[in-house]
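Sample pair:
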Amino acid sequence: MKDRFSHDSAGYANFRPDYPESVFKELFKLCASFGTALDVATGNGQVVRHLTGKFKQVKATDISGQQIKYAYQASNLEYSIQPAEESSFSDQSFDLITVGQAVHWFDFNNFYAEVKRLLKPKGLLAILGYGLIQSEQNFDLIIGKFYTDILGNYWDLERKWIDENYQTIPFPFREVNFSNHTIAYSWNLDQLTGYLQTWSAVKNYKNQTGKDPMPQVTRELEKAFGERKEVKVSFPILARVGRV
């Protein structure tokens, strides 16, 4: 798995969107029991904060110790630095395994083999993510140009799985229907540009060109804001949920 986020773990923790409670209310209705859950590639703990209130014990792993440094904390939560595809946990340890905005970085075959080893009978795998940010038309045009025209050649190949809404990833499980959900915020300019700054393609652009692509898009967004303090933004949630 590629580590694309250790370089700006604080920014990732501050600006990455969180999943709404509606996602987990639906997910928990599908769970057979609530003993132990595992969140893989946990990042700053966007998913585990929802799990700790429901499960007796929650484990969370990531390959980045820097990410975990800024992660959410709870008394029934334990972090460890481990890859998604191979962990130290015992067979059939978990009632639920979750992945948030990360499965596209994994070796699918090895990860899915690990999931099948770790899940209890009737256990559930939930792959979550979110698509490209959406807003009003003038903001979408600016962000779309930034995403495609400026950063287009600097996205890792794995980004295609998100662009295809996770519908084309391998998924060797008995799939469970899951509703459409949306993340919605009202963001000011700093929040919007702070989020864009966390994109892996921004880092790739800087590393490969020695230039920062953010000032130009920030100026364009600032002009679009005008006298407004905030603009509504949303993210379509991507979900694949299934059992072994």
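Strands lie at 36-40, 57-62, 77-81, 94-100, 119-130, 174-176, 182-187, 231-243.
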